Amino acid sequence: MQKPAAIIRVWRPSHVIRLLASGAAALAAVVASVAAVAVTPASAAPTPFLSHFNNIDVVASTVPTTGPGAGDQNPYGVANVPFSTGNLVRGDTLVSNFNSSSNTQGTGTTIMQVAPNGQVGIFAQIDASTLPGSCPGGVGLTTALSVLGDGYVVVGSLPVNGAGTPQPGCLIVLNSDGVPVETFAGAGINGPWDMTALQVFGPFAELFVTNVLNGTVAAGGSEVDHGTVVRLSVFDPPGRPPVFFASNVIATGFAEELNSSALVVGPTGVALGQNGTLYVADTVKSRITAIPFATGRFFPVFGGGIPLSTGGSLNGPLGLATAPNGDLITVNAGDGNAVEVSPFGMQVDTKMIDTFNSGGDLFGLAIAPGGHGLLFVNDNGAANTLDILH
């Protein structure tokens, strides 16, 4: 399969009208929200999402026990299954593994499927030699994991070569039976680390992908500020594989660096808020930033986005999700805490969810179906589990 051709953006009046209209609508909504906050008594402030939950249970191990990927570990990506089709079952959770059984980073090839009752199976085991398209470097599944509207699953790959050097990778598209059907490579994809998806309208979707290898390897461990967020536009016709047709870099300037314990550290979690704002967990800088008008903008925000919340309880934030109350939930690389941040940047709650309270155990997360808790992966020691705060 050929790599996607370069996209030449031609400005038309309709483009300008669309951008101005979306900007005006978003600005009006922000003004209305601020006005509402100004007249709302402090006692009526929304209750933090995390404060509703106090129990933590293991849902299941995410280590496959059979097949070529047996022993894969270091769970990274977490994605809810929104409806049943093929082998996908509504309410189940998909989890991608970044490490192989040898615990080598960037060599995991399996996606596990976990039911709410703890039943677990292998949704996919991806063989680099049989991929249906280009994926520079092979397979090493990252936190980038999403389910599109018709049941196709998209997962990121940031593999390593024999010397352990990270490679550009790709996005791998699988059907609802877990079979790879195509890849998206190039077009701004360079070390896809995390991702969120939006079904825009009908068969059209947008993928928002963080990339952490722009100059990182060449820096040899020094920090560089070249991390990006790329928006991929996808035509997703019923019963047929998605067709990638446009790529736009919507944010640049995120800090990134090679890391002995995590392979690479850079912009990780992405979550959509109201009015088309995309929020990013800037791991190196311990902050959450915002990209306004992310669903329609044609020009990037520089400097790693607009700072929303920095420091405080944020300690190397990784995965990111939008809670039902509109707040952002992230988990820390530097300790065992989940942190809740309001759309106005206030850190409204912090809760320890890794009982060892140690750094490096947490990564991907998702709001449990129906908003009944927080699903998150935990690779403390030999754990390698999907857990739930409920």
Write down the Rg: 20 Å
Number of helices: 2
Largest sheet: 5 strands, antiparallel
Low-confidence stretches: 1-43
What average pLDDT do the residues reach?
Answer: 89
Which structural class do you get from the secondary structure elements? mainly beta
- General form: globular
Assembly state of the chains shown: single chain
Output the helix-strand order.
Answer: HEEEEEEEEEEEHEEEEEEEEEEEEEE
What is the straight-line distance between the termini? 44 Å
Q: State the strand order across the main sheet.
A: 10-11-12-13-14
Count the E strands. 25
- Residue share in helix: under 10%
β-sheet strand percentage: 35-45%
Describe the structure concisely for a colleague:
With 390 residues, this protein is mainly β. The protein has helices at residues 13-39, 216-219; strands spanning 56-61, 73-80, 93-99, 110-114, 120-125, 141-147, 153-157, 170-174, 180-184, 192-201, 204-211, 224-235, 243-259, 263-265, 267-272, 278-282, 287-291, 306-310, 317-322, 328-332, 337-341, 347-352, 362-367, 374-378, 385-389.
Description:
With 390 residues, the protein is mainly β. Helix content is 8%, strand content 42%. It is built from 2 helices and 25 strands. The strands form 6 sheets. The chain has a 5-stranded antiparallel β-sheet. A 4-stranded antiparallel β-sheet has the order 1-25-24-23, with no helix packed on it. Strand 12 and strand 13 (243-259) form a beta hairpin. The longest helix has 27 residues, at 13-39. It starts with 12 loop residues before the first helix and ends with a strand. The relative contact order is 0.14. Residues 1-43 have low confidence and may be disordered.
